[in-house]
Amino acid sequence: METPDFVFKGIQNSPEHVKTAWQSPSNIAIVKYWGKIGDQIPANASLSLTLDACHTRTEVSCRKRESGEKQQINFFFEGKEAPEFGQKSFSFIQKIRGFQPFLQDYHLTIKTENSFPHSSGIASSASGMSALALCFMSLEDELAGGYDDEFFFRKASFLARIGSGSASRSIYGKTTVWGEHHDFIQSSNLYAVPHRENVHPVFDSFNDVILLIHEGSKSISSTAGHAALNHHPFAESRYREAGVNMGLLKNILAAGDVAAFGELAEREALMLHALMMAGPQPFILMKPNTLAVITAVQEFRKQTQTPVYFTLDAGANVHILFPDEVREKVLNFIEGELVVYCENKQYICDRVGNGPVKQQL
Ligand code: DP6
Q1: Mapping DSSP to helix (H, G, I), strand (E, B) and coil, where does residue 109 land?
Q2: Is a pLDDT exceeding 70 seen at residue 219?
Q3: Contact between 22 and 357 (Cβ < 8 Å)
Q4: 40 CB under 6 A from ligand 1?
Q5: Domain 201-351: which topology?
Q6: How many CA atoms, within 13 angstroms, populate the side-chain half-sphere of residue 8?
Q7: Percent of the chain scored above 70 by pLDDT?
Q8: Closest atom of ligand 1 to CA, residue 28
Q9: Is 226 in the pocket of ligand 1 (CB under 6 A)?
Q10: Residues above pLDDT 90, as percent of the chain
Q11: Which residue is closest in CA terms to ligand 1's atom 5?
Q12: Is 164 in the pocket of ligand 1 (CB under 6 A)?
């Protein structure tokens, strides 16, 4: 499907009030998206695991606007009116107006809350933008008189992408691909697609324990991070390498090769940070404790032959990845040896999840 296919076609129903709510998860990229054009056309394809415990719940109430009335958009974050947090949602609404012109006909009240602490350094844009896009799609669904699931979720992913690239992947559970890649037939730069066939069941129950290394906000926005790739000496080789890694990962997922999966995840994470460190305006997002955890994980793996690996986002936190069969052993290792490196001993036990859930109201 192409961009014009996502323009709203016409109103069947015109309800005065609509209220809708979705819970949508975060995701962790194994092959990373880093580098983009415009409103999130990715420079390379990426693949992620959808998470479960880290999610955002968003409720949108829409009330028909009388002609002449100025549109009101009110934003509540964790129960309190929070116009400063609403800014991102507001600019998102402006950007998607061409695809959902009916949004202007309603006053909107948006209430959102995260399952993880705001200060944790866990990016909320993937879960937040996907939850909001799904709420707007539920409104569209009412107005259009009903869509099939395929179009509903595809357009939700398309809209979520305009809010934040990685959010496009949170629309589907388990393993998700976003960005055109010849090995993934249905893949698109405009929206993510679920990657369900030929994935070994070991990855359906994979664990991701997120070690919270450094509280507070990141020292660079992801927009600035992506922009650094525009004049980066290694940009082209990075995009090539990401393409190669997508092809490798497809085969690894099919084979259930946990060791190859973990090694690829680690290489991708280190390459992401190496790109940041080698850009025109270098920056370092790892903290000393990030490196301490990486070293401890690699050492533990070597000593005990336990399949435990790490990946990183654009921040200091470390995601510890491992299959369910070694869960107890790895949780003991984390409690015994890694927790000392976490700020206030905080970590979040997450795992692969089934994707967003519509909320009963
Ligand atoms: C390092 O999706 O947060 O997490 O599109 O500008 O909102 P924007 O960026 P964002 O970038 C995520 C980058 C990453 C890798 C990934 O999730 O693929």
Answers
A1: strand
A2: no
A3: yes
A4: yes
A5: Alpha-Beta Plaits (3.30.70)
A6: 24
A7: 99
A8: 17
A9: yes
A10: 88
A11: 165
A12: yes
Ligand 1 centroid to Cα of residue 13, in Å, is 36
pTM above 0.90, yes or no: yes
What are 24's two structure tokens? 């949508």
CA dihedral 268, 320, 186, 172 (to 10 degrees): -150
Beta strands in the chain (DSSP E): 17-31, 36-37, 41-42, 46-64, 73-77, 80-81, 106-114, 175-178, 192-194, 207-211, 309-312, 318-322, 347-351, 357-358
Please compute, for residue 335, the number of CA atoms within 13 A of its CA located in the half-sphere on the CB side: 7
Q: What is the pLDDT of residue 217?
A: 53
114-166 pLDDT, tens digit each = 999 877 777 789 999 999 999 999 999 999 988 999 999 999 999 999 999 99
pLDDT for residue 320 is more than 60: yes
Angle, helices 149-163 vs 125-144, to 10°: value is: 140
152, 144 in Cβ contact below 8 A? no
CATH 3.30.230.10 segments of the chain:
3-198
Residue nearest to atom 6 of ligand 1 (CA): 223
Query: Distance, CA 20 to ligand 1 centroid (Å)?
Result: 26
Q: What residue ranges of the chain are covered by domains with CATH 3.30.70.890? A: 201-351
Query: Which token pair is 70?
Result: 């100025």
Ligand 1 atom closest to the Cα of residue 27 is 17
In terms of CATH architecture, what is 3-198?
2-Layer Sandwich (3.30)
Of 51, 92, 210, 222, the one to substitute when testing ligand 1's pocket (max ligand atoms within 8 A of C-beta) is 222
